[in-house]
Known about the structure:
Radius of gyration of chain A: 15 Å
Oligomer: heterodimer
Radius of gyration of chain B: 23 Å
Shape of chain B: elongated
Largest sheet of chain A: 6 strands, mixed, barrel
Strand content of chain B: 15-25%
Shape of chain A: globular
Strand order of the largest sheet of chain B: 2-1-3
Number of strands of chain B: 4
Helix content of chain A: under 10%
Structural class of chain A: mainly beta
Number of strands of chain A: 10
Distance between the termini of chain A: 28 Å
Order of helices and strands of chain B: HEEHEEHH
Number of helices of chain B: 4
Helix content of chain B: 40-55%
Order of helices and strands of chain A: EEEEHEEEEHEE
Largest interface: A-B, 28 and 24 residues
Strand content of chain A: over 45%
Amino acid sequence: xxxxxxxxxxxxxxxxxxxxxxxxxxxxxxxxxxxxxxxxxxxxxxxxxxxxxxxxxxxxxxxxxxxxxxxxxxxxxxxxxxxxxxxxxxxxxxxxxxxxxxxxxxxxxxxxxxxxxxxxxxxxxxxxxx
Amino acid sequence: xxxxxxxxxxxxxxxxxxxxxxxxxxxxxxxxxxxxxxxxxxxxxxxxxxxxxxxxxxxxxxxxxxxxxxxxxxxxxxxxxxxxxxxxxxxxxxxxxxxxxxxxxxxxxxxxxxxxxxxxxx
Lengths: 130, 122
């Protein structure tokens, strides 16, 4: 099972989680992403990683940032290994670190200990039976 | 699915500007209030467009126009993703939820809070 860790760096706690990302040409790598529950999409990657993976352009969209600015952001398609299988995801190209958003966490349980080296666990939720 | 050539940043910028102009000048006048929040994908080169209930609508347009340089928006709302921001359309829902949480004091051990108040003479 993939496991992430909260790391305390200069007094700030950062939820870091490894993610395996593959592009359409087969180029792939593991990146350490921050979990950002304030981001509604799947995954954010910086331009350098998008270029490394030779991701395929999808479209441009408007995104609203925490400073309330609305900016055009290019989106790309990628495949990630998530939970126990592969998933096609939309990647937003922006910023300088990979971010995992709520759409990738959909139907999962997220738990972490908010201390340095505290474990982060993401588990797929089993469908409940009535 | 066949792989298409990635457009350059300049091509994306020009296509996005054209697509937005086409939305404001033409498409939005063809849509109604009932379409609010639906996804609109516009090819900034051919100005062909599609509307749908999910963000897969860009794929429908790409199937029809394989080399499309697409800008996708949500009718009236415009914004497709939020990065640390709250969707404006949710503000009333969030305010109502905050009020409910305050009223119910969910998550607060009220009896303990009362004890602490007594302890500190408040």
